[in-house]
Amino acid sequence: MAVLKVKVASIIGMMDQLDNVIRVCGQSGCFHPDDALSFYSDTHNFTPIAEENPYAPSLQLLKDTVAAGSVHLRLVDTSGLTFSDDQLSDYVNRLAGTLGALQSNQAAIRQEMEDLSKAVVEVSHFLGLELDLEEIFACQYIKVRFGRLPKESFHKLNSYNDNPYILFFPCTEDKTHYWGVYFSPIEYVDEVDRIFSSLYFERLRISATDSTPEDRLKALQGEIEAHKKALVEVEQQISDFWKAEETKCMQVYSRLEELNTYFGIRKY
What we know:
By secondary structure, this protein is α+β, with helices and mostly antiparallel strands.
């Protein structure tokens, strides 16, 4: 790149014209601000302008809101935008409120689907038990716990042979755990729970309204399908909203970037 000559210009004027002058300099496309204090030897009567940027909060809110939707902001021509500063702020707040609510709903649905998918994997370990869960959970004198136990802990159960209530029934296994169930008389459940907890038993809570693990699996799969439909709906709402607001959003973003930059020049 060739070296270009530059000219140094000192601009002196009334403070109520400062923003207009900065805008003209910025729009010229060939202006670079420098610290005025560096050009004068006697600056004891100079006071740098230190004010809070009124455009920064709206600009950051807009960036954060749009970034959450994986949309890329871009600078566009703003000559057709007639918004005042208050209207710029109001627009950003409205967009952030509407789009933010849709994005939060979208994130919540996705999290619920992830939790349901994990539950499907977990309950699959108990298929084929032929247990009527409603009857089991209706027992007045017996408590049941479904879950998984590390294989190392499973082998330690032999050290509790003197306790007739420490019994674990494996159903399936993976590389690190046995998935199964244990029962306890209600009067000993606290002690049994404490022992299994010390053995790092991880409990899986299965709803008592499901008659069998197979029914539980079917119910979970139905919930996942319902959430998939809800996710499609909210994603369509986001898409429709963005199509309607994209042009205006880019204009507001570009204007805020411009105003934010010009305001930052004031300190020079």
